Amino acid sequence: AQDIGFPSIFLFSDPSAGYFGDLWFKGNPEYERVNPSMEGLAPEFGTFTYPSTVSNEGASTFITIGDISVQADTMSFTISSSLLADGFPDTSLHIGLVYDFDNDGVQEIAGGQESIWVAQESDITIRNDFYQPVGAVYDWSVIYIDQVLHLAINEVSNGSNTKILFFQWQADEQTFQWVQDTIIASNNVLVMSNSTGSPVFITDAIYQVQTVVINDDGTVDSLNSRPWASAADLNLDGEAEYLYIDYQLVDTPNFYGTLEAKHMNGVT
Fold first, then answer.
1. DSSP letter string over 48-80?
2. What is the DSSP string of 170-181?
């Protein structure tokens, strides 16, 4: 195993230097010498071990290589990232949306491909199927209809149209119930929410690459050409602010950017 951050070519150097020929296995006395707290345990490499898994610039990779077995013809180990929840990513789930529809502190996870299902974040293996699409599903969103939260699913219909289906969460049954659907003459529809009325359907291509917010007073703010942007009403004044990360110091070790918040009015 070679130290991800600090490779070395010196044959008899301290193992903390990370010589590429070092043999790491459970019971290796050299590993226990430089990591005394791991004596008797399976070797593990992370941010604070020797060798470590930090990058060449000294920034954390959030990767842990652990559970390294004893030396044998076949050995095993695990690789994990502290940035990922256990079991994720799992592309086979085709997760479309995660949201707490009933505000109980537990997220509902909706996904699927041939059959659309919903599960609780506490146990994603228990899934309730609630819809079988005929066409491909290409977008999921949380929408208000008359001040009631709904799940909206965009499904391709007849090749060039979109069937947008609205479902309401049923807390007792732990599933969604179909409420209504509509057909839009476009295969690329953006559904926007208006908490006091009906949803708005956007088909113009220009709005597909913009962040668009309808304020309480009816004015519309838009934002484009800004990577990693999100919109939110931070001070609850009915007008949106946008959040973005400024990457001015990308070459500085351990620098993750500066989170900025600015008013959207007048910003394009």
1. TSSS----TTS----EEEE----SSSS---EEE
2. ETTTTEEEEEEE
User: Is this prediction's pTM over 0.90?
Assistant: no
Where do runs of H (alpha helix) occur along 199-263?
205-208
Considering only CA atoms, give the Rg of the chain: 25
Per-residue pLDDT of the chain (268 residues; tens, 9 = 90+): 444 444 545 544 555 544 545 667 888 887 788 778 888 889 888 888 877 888 877 788 889 999 999 888 888 999 888 877 666 667 777 889 999 999 898 899 999 989 999 999 888 889 999 999 999 999 999 998 888 899 999 999 998 899 999 999 999 999 999 999 999 999 889 888 765 678 888 886 555 556 666 667 777 666 665 555 566 676 667 776 766 666 555 555 554 556 666 665 544 4
Q: For residue 258, list its beta bridge partners.
A: 246
